[in-house]
Amino acid sequence: MRNINKGISRTLAIVIALVIIIVAIGAGLGYYYNNISKFRYTIAITVAGSDPIPLYWAYQNGLFQKYLPEANVEAFPSGGGAVIQAISSGKAQIGFVNIFSILTAIASGVPIKIVAVWDDSPYTAGVIVKSNSPFYNISQLEGKIFAESRPGSFDAVTLQLMVGRLGWGNNYTAVPVGSPGAQIAAVLSGKADASLVNIWDVERLIQTGQLRQIYVVSQEWPAEYIVASDSFISQHPDIITKVIQATYKIMQDYYSNANSSIQFMMKYYNFTEVIAEEYLHTVVYATTPSLALVNTTALKLAISALINAKVLPSNFTSIPLSSIYTNQFVYQTSSSNGNITTELISTLMIIDSKNFN
């Protein structure tokens, strides 16, 4: 009987020890994952011009707080240059920004990398002049004053691209005025002869006869991407994936809440209802992994255009594409999306690997 009791005691002691170990491990894991969920970081978004409309709509309606409660989101009305500056200074770790600002930042040594596309529509800009301006074609604007939002912004780099294509060299003057709204005001007041702005920003003013559009610059690659600092990518890859997944949800909400989105554009962007509806159904944002994938061919076209326009140095092509972007995190969001098959993920990876050179 004594031996039986000793055996039971030993068994009980082992069970108790195992329970203590399991509880300790569980507590440790809970502490670890709780700390991850509470880790604070900053996302910089641009709210300059019409491209970021869904971001600004989400910002105003608390959707970043809903899907990314641990993130501090800062909005920059002066454009992509300010977003890049926030990341390069360490103020932000993730940014939503245009491709030109990204590439020029990488060329200058800013340690960032593209992790996804969020605005799939190409940037289309128009050169605007005041309705009573004596200028009626683009050649008449050589040597004239252009208002730009700020150096490094999408409109500023696109202006450089346009000037390079037209062969003007340095025979023009670019005056930074702070924001797309200030660009339009500078033209209307006569402080600038012209400005290059997103066509959606001025459609109503053109329709009402206050401005004229005399030239259009169209591009062949997605306008806006998500970037992150190299150090943040290596230290917090799980957060990168989470931000991309949240972006899908935000863009899905933007489209599914059409009335709210349209009313928002009418209130904050002075769109008519017709223009707002057209915008909602024309501009394509990444609601799924397939739309968020970075296309290598499109990226190469953007790099080539900027080199030809002397915006990027000719030796920029020596930078490996693997240092400029990664689709790793978009693939991870694909694998967690029940609507995306394994076969599709494999196909996307094969296509990407063929272009990745």
Task: Explain what the structure shows.
The protein is globular. Helix 6 links the parallel strand 5 (145-148) and strand 6 (173-176). It folds into 3 domains: 1-38; 39-121 and 222-355, 3-Layer(aba) Sandwich (D-Maltodextrin-Binding Protein, domain 2); 125-220, D-Maltodextrin-Binding Protein, domain 2 (3-Layer(aba) Sandwich). Helix content is 52%, strand content 19%. With 357 residues, it is an alpha/beta fold. Helix 10 crosses helix 15 and helix 11 crosses helix 12. The chain is built from 16 helices and 8 strands.
Quick gist of this model?
This protein is of the alpha/beta class. Helix content is 52%, strand content 19%. Mean pLDDT is 85; it is low at 4-8, 11-36, 338-343 and 353-357.
Characteristics:
357 residues; alpha/beta; D-Maltodextrin-Binding Protein, domain 2; 8-stranded mixed β-sheet; 16 helices; 52% helix; globular
Uncertain parts: 4-8, 11-36, 338-343, 353-357
Question: What gross morphology would you assign?
Answer: globular
What does the radius of gyration come to? 25 Å
Return the string of H and E elements. Answer: HEHHEHEHEEHEHEHEHHHHHHHH
State the total count of DSSP E strands: 8
Order of strands across the main sheet:
2-1-3-8-4-7-5-6
| Number of domain units | 3
Class of secondary structure makeup: alpha/beta
Proportion of residues in helical segments: 40-55%
What is the straight-line distance between the termini?
77 Å
Largest sheet: 8 strands, mixed
